[in-house]
């Protein structure tokens, strides 16, 4: 008697579920473009490097503030644990999501900035009214305005692509909305952030394809306004006068931070004094973990460490430019280009302040300096650009897509030519079987 086969009907759904799970996991980790990984890898390296330098530069100030040696570091690490997963989630969202809902970030930032200016929730730091405090949590609404401006400018300039050569269509949406957002930040006295936002707007116009002659006049007007605002404050006027002076004699006042930043860079030399061995962080250099963290990098890691940081920002610029070049629509170009201008101009201003090239403005080093709102919003902006890079990897170029969608045309059939009349074989032409040749009698001589 043949043994009966076991019934596998119950195992079939299990096998099907396992197969489905494998397919889902595979789709979640599908390969992206090289631009995606270059931008993601450089960003993660800068964040990790920033956490190490925040730990080194803030340990003394954190201890004197009775937060322990790791108080500022743990807080910055918490912001990184929030920002990095948020960046990865944002990178999975489609571009259509940002085109539909991106303006909400700008609206939220403007509302919060109004609360900073006209309610008791506003907090003044260093003479600038640019912080809001709610329940022990502080943030800068101007950082959220940057993200909102990037996405809103991408949507508006993409819609008005055909009319960017006309002053009216270019000025009507941008001047009241973008100019109003910049004006709100300007009322708080944060000149450094105003400069970054102005550069972001002009970068968006440039990558949208607006003619340079149309950008030149607003650029001159904006630069003149920044100069007027710079001299409208007594503290800023003093800092500018100190910067323009031949020598800095008041080392206990406005020159203190600049001079000790230069001392830290000089002490580092080529190879640095070693990670954690900075002397400037022992309450000699104000904002050592924030605005002047590049000075601590130069002191502990030397010229080599400083050049590595600059090289990482160059790699970030290359990743952004490659994404801009691979973009085939105005929205993607504007968003990727304006985020690049935002991050790189802020890095340039921070490093230039530490090196004494420009007056002190109070701008943090992106992805490295301590500060939760700056880190999270910067990671959100990079996440939007990562979603664009991911869409480029999964969408072919327009010419390739058109070639795929174009139906294949067959060559037309040639008309049949007049056939020659069929010839009927005559009886003579009918092939007959070949008869064997007659054999000849052999002559035997008989």
Output the strand order for the largest sheet: 1-2-3
Strand elements, count: 3
Query: What is the overall number of helices?
Result: 15
Structural class, from helix and strand content? mainly alpha
The major sheet is characterized as: 3 strands, antiparallel
Strand content: under 5%
> What's the quaternary structure here?
single chain
The ordered string of helix (H) and strand (E) elements is HHHHHEEEHHHHHHHHHH
How much is the average pLDDT?
Answer: 81
The dominant shape is globular
- Domain unit count: 1
- Uncertain parts: 8-29, 400-404, 427-432, 439-446
Radius of gyration: 35 Å
Give a quick rundown of the structure.
The protein has 446 residues and is mainly α.
Defining key terms:
single chain; 446 residues; mainly alpha; three-stranded antiparallel sheet; 15 helices; 3 strands; 3% strand; disordered C terminus; transmembrane; cell wall biogenesis/degradation; FtsW/RodA; Probable peptidoglycan glycosyltransferase FtsW; FtsW
Q: Can you put this structure into words, describing what you see?
A:
By secondary structure, this protein is mainly alpha-helical. The protein contains 15 helices and 3 strands. The chain has one domain. Strands 1-2-3 form a 3-stranded antiparallel beta sheet. A hairpin with a 2-residue loop joins strand 1 (122-125) and strand 2. Helix 2 (34-64) packs antiparallel against helix 14 (372-394). Peptidoglycan polymerase that is essential for cell division. Residues 397-446 are annotated as: Disordered. Keywords: Cell cycle, Cell division, Cell membrane, Cell shape, Cell wall biogenesis/degradation, Glycosyltransferase, Membrane, Peptidoglycan synthesis, Transferase, Transmembrane, Transmembrane helix. Residues 403-429 have a biased composition (Low complexity).
